Amino acid sequence: FGAIKEVQTGETADLSDYKHIWVFAEQRKGKLMNVALELIGEGHRLANEISADTQVCAVLVGNKIDHLAAECFAYGADKVIMIQDPLLEQYTTDGYTKVITDAIHEMKPEIVLYGATHIGRDLAPRIAARCNTGLTADCTRLDVKVSSYIEFAKKKTTLDISTLDPEDTSTGIKQTRPAFGGNLMATIICPNTRPQMSTVRPGVMQKREKVEGATGEIVTYKPTIAKSDIHIDVVDVVKSAKELVSLTDADIICSGGRGLGDASGFKLIQEFADKVGGVVGSSRAAVDAGWIDQSHQVGQTGTTVKPKIYFACGISGAIQHLAGMQTSDYIVAINKDADCPMMEVADFCIVGDLYKVIPQIIAEWDKAEDLHDAATRKEA
Amino acid sequence: MAFKIIVCAKQVPDTNVIKINPKTGTLIREGVPSILNHDDANALEEALKIKDQYPDTHITVITMGPPQANDLLFECIAMGADDGILVSDRAVGGSDTWATSNTLEAAVRKVGDFDLLWCGRQAIDGDTAQVGPQLAEKLGVPQVTYVQEFELDKDMKTITVKRQMEDGYELIKLQTPCMLTAIKELNSPRYMYMSGIFADKTMKTWNAKDIEVDLNTVGLEASPTNVFRSFTPAPKGKGIVITGDTEKEIADNLLVNLKEKQVI
Ligand SMILES: Cc1cc2nc3c(=O)[nH]c(=O)nc-3n(C[C@H](O)[C@H](O)[C@H](O)COP(=O)(O)OP(=O)(O)OC[C@H]3O[C@@H](n4cnc5c(N)ncnc54)[C@H](O)[C@@H]3O)c2cc1C
Ligand SMILES: Cc1cc2nc3c(=O)[nH]c(=O)nc-3n(C[C@H](O)[C@H](O)[C@H](O)COP(=O)(O)OP(=O)(O)OC[C@H]3O[C@@H](n4cnc5c(N)ncnc54)[C@H](O)[C@@H]3O)c2cc1C
């Protein structure tokens, strides 16, 4: 590697030179990742908290991806920065880092958001290091105004808010993230360098309602990139033959854990999911036991999910599992152990043998409407 | 010429047994065992596998941390690493990932040229997965993160790796020197064997001066990110216990409740 170079300190240039919010609109094979649209939505919320003239810019990097601009506008981008070159067709750390860093230096965004995907978490730290600025990892909540941070803290945390001044504007973007395996939440700020950057966990931010035909400004950024800038050779991109589990989009998830006892337990879980129109999830213990593929794993090292209903069947509720599903609208715990941690976070707790309970739920599912009517009549 | 590998490894509290004081939002460190970060054990294992095949491979483990992180070096050497270096200095305390990678960069440069630099994907305490890529950037070497399979060509220069993606993998070729980050799917780390400890291996402790790092680029003060607040998530109110004399009755009660909330 190269000769010893001078270590630069952070770019403490005039912070007010930096304006607008950039979203790295990650695309793979000409298709936008869901998280890109979520971040455009979140970018909007933040832009409103900063000022009326703060824009949300989707940064599209690739080759022959002009068609994606319309989708970014439809989901609320004010502007699209288009960076295209045949050398950017396939994601490479080197290629993307170079062109995005160059664009950042030229256009000076105040905030840059990336999805915390396998690509985002490879790319963002490399860019942050090249820009000598801070990067907050895997955020689950962002606030600019202290007043909205206080609202969040009141509802969702044990934080003592008496020390926070709602009018304080000095702290920039407050980026909240889990650490220590979800045991601790930390809010990180980046006060002295720009841009402020975060990777954001897929599935936690809200997309905006799609507005067909929405338009905005397209800025074409001509990248300076040569073959010699890219030091790796992507020989092949292989999709696993297994069917894609779309845990992040599922309304209902039926998850099984070690409590299933063996691999065949997932047959019951699959039947359950089929009945309720859900998707099969799992704990890591079930994955490690070889009962089910890793793509089904929910949790800190699996997928973060936020379904309407999460059925946790024979899952104890280890902190790393909870980290990935705790924000589900409703959690149903089915477990033999009335005192397991899952029962602490569940909205509905069923203490019992999952092999006895689940078949009954499957059998009764279609009668829910009638059962509810009967119950309300009885009450009246 | 010996093949040179550097492994960056971090000593972390075992987050499975960690307790947080919910009032102050701080860690209760007493009684929490410190362990070699999981992914870093996978990184070291992959280095050791190369050494199994090419015995003149030299593996140096670098860790940055307080004096007790020396225990980690013992463990790595007992697994089969050749040297261990502890970078320890009050001046580097409180570093964020930017500042941590500046320190590790200086330590790597002092160790000298390498063929492979291995990191773990992610440390289980800070959980950022940023140090590897930032270190690679500062050293000016290419990187591949999330490595699930690794192969070194006979030319000892060309590397083929599978990089894990959410829905499959990328097959990537690159040349040494480079930085790779290991994930648990890569291998199963071996156990320590005691004879390893007594062979002619060295352990050193370096301070900030030894590695000639610019003090304006390390430690809490120099870090671009700061912890603004830390806290524990709010406990949720206790849920409804669904009861019934038979499983059928339980199922019915659950469905009535879900219907009531209009989620089904
Ligand atoms: C760094 C790190 C990252 C991790 N990441 C993740 C992650 O992303 N996702 C994840 O899930 N885990 C993760 N883990 C593992 C986690 O700590 C737990 O080990 C795991 O979640 C336990 O899975 P489980 O609940 O299925 O198993 P167990 O904890 O063994 O629980 C089984 C449960 O089944 C119940 N049970 C048994 N039989 C029945 C029955 N017949 N009917 C009903 N209930 C029954 C038992 O009462 C028990 O509560 C991680 C760990 C580490 C260290
Ligand atoms: C609650 C909390 C939240 C934090 N959030 C952020 C944040 O969002 N952004 C930020 O920049 N900093 C953050 N930090 C600081 C960060 O944890 C430290 O800089 C830490 O030293 C390195 O980050 P990590 O533990 O996340 O390592 P990772 O980047 O996850 O580690 C990846 C790999 O780098 C190598 N490595 C990492 N640290 C060392 C070491 N000390 N010695 C040898 N090898 C090492 C290992 O191979 C490791 O597997 C946070 C700290 C805390 C306490």
Automatic annotation (TrEMBL), chain B:
Residues 24-215 form the Electron transfer flavoprotein alpha/beta-subunit N-terminal domain. It holds the Pfam family ETF. One of its GO terms (molecular function) is electron transfer activity. Its cofactor is AMP. Belongs to the ETF beta-subunit/FixA family. This is Electron transfer flavoprotein small subunit. It comes from Aminicella lysinilytica.
